[in-house]
Amino acid sequence: MDDVPFRRSAGRRNEREGIRVDLTRHCLAHGRLRLPYALRDRVPEGVLSARDAVADVDLPLEASGGELFGLRPLFERHALRPNDAILVRIDEAGAVHVAPAPAARAAAGGDDRPLDAADPAREARLRGAPEASAAPTE
C-alpha cells in the first residue's frame, strides 16, 4: 500500500493565482481561517507579514495550529461576506500574498425563482402591476 496521505490537499488550486480558501461566517466573525492541507506545510508557524495584493498593503498575520489569524482588516477592507474567498499565494522567496475573491451574486432585489405558468398573478408581476391578493372590501 502507498504511504501517500488520504487527503493530499484541500482548497482549489491555481499555481499562478494561489489557493482559493472559501470563507464562512465563523471566519469573518473571528478574523481567522483554517488553512487547507495544501497550505499547512507551506505557511510558516509564528508571526508573518502578508501582502494584500489588491490594496497593496502589508498585513501582520499569525499562523498557529493550522489556522491563520489577523485577517479581519482584510475582510473589512474588501467587504467580504460568507461564501466569498481569498486567494493565498506563496512566492518563491516564501512571501505570503493574499487577495480577495468575492463570489458572484445575483443583482439586488432580483427574484431568480422560475415563473409558474399556471400562477394567476404571473401576468401582473410581468407587467409590474400590483397584485390583487384579496377581494376589495367596502
Describe this structure in words.
- The chain contains four helices and eight strands, in the order ββαβαβββαββα.
- Mean pLDDT is 77; it is low at 4-10.
- It is α+β, with helices and mostly antiparallel strands and 138 residues long.
- A hairpin with a 2-residue loop joins strand 5 (57-64) and strand 6.
- The chain has an eight-stranded mixed sheet.
Q: In what range is the share of β-strand residues?
A: 25-35%
**Kindly state the mean pLDDT as a whole number?**
77
Count of individual helical segments: 4
Largest sheet: 8 strands, mixed
Q: Strand order, main sheet: write it out.
A: 1-2-7-8-4-5-6-3
Mass-distribution shape:
globular
Binned, the helix content reads 10-25%
Rg: 23 Å
Instruction: Please report the total strand number as a whole number.
Output: 8
Key words describing this protein structure:
4 helices; 138 residues
Topology (elements, then pairings):
Elements: E1 12-14, E2 18-22, H1 25-30, E3 32-34, H2 37-40, E4 46-52, E5 57-64, E6 67-69, H3 72-77, E7 85-90, E8 96-101, H4 122-127
Parallel strand pairs: 4-8
Antiparallel strand pairs: 1-2, 2-7, 3-6, 4-5, 5-6, 7-8
